[in-house]
Please model this.
Amino acid sequence: MGPDYFNTDVTLSTYYFFETAFASVTLALVGVIALRKMKMSAFLLFSVAYFIIIWSIPAAWIWNPTGWLYSLGMRDFAGGLVVHGAAGAAGLALVFQLWREEKANGLKKSPRVPLNVQSRWITIAILLLWLGWFGFNPGSTLIFGYEANVVVLTTFIAASASMVSTLFVNYLIKKESPVIFDAVNGILMGLIVITPLAGYVSPASAMVLGLVSGPLLIFTTRLFSQIHWFSDPVGLFPGHTIGGIFGVIMIAFFTQHAFAADSGAGNLPDGLFFGGGYQA
Model:
């Protein structure tokens, strides 16, 4: 990353452990895809290829100031593609290979892995995850200053707005009282969508993105559930993959140069919704 680390006082060891935490979290997401369907020894071998190829190379392309995608102007604040996209790509590879083996054994549909998760535990889990996201997103500014506080706000507001929109749209569709699992999934989707642009947008834009995230999660989940060879017990594809990609695309629309510059992306112009135009 160079000696100055974007002109911050971050040390090599600090930055290393910060990025290691990012990488390990994404592999954990992938691990749930293969839950009870893959030997631990095989998954450990896969993790070697994951960290060296699927994670490290795209991360260097996008986050390293000398990376070719970074040089072209690609920005991904805290990992819409680097984190969620990488997990989605790895998960897709595993699911497809598992389905090939299941199909060879005569199965017509990939068996669903039953999950018995109690609401109180999932509530505690999402609260801890939400708290951890305040480390990943604001920490991606690599300096504790004013913009880190703004990122805390955008992260919190997007997740909260997504929870509200998820509960509301689910109620309109099902005509049933909201349940805790809908709220949890809504919070998570909002966190995912805001991740790649949390340091580039205003709190007001974060609210809009959060409100859109809920319906996006609901309809993409329904779409993926119709694919017979998908076995996705935690919504990796409709949530992390689609949400991460959607968030990256929204950089072109919602970015405000003043926020981006404070987050170290001074070359990002205003997005299309804020008077920006098409720039090479």
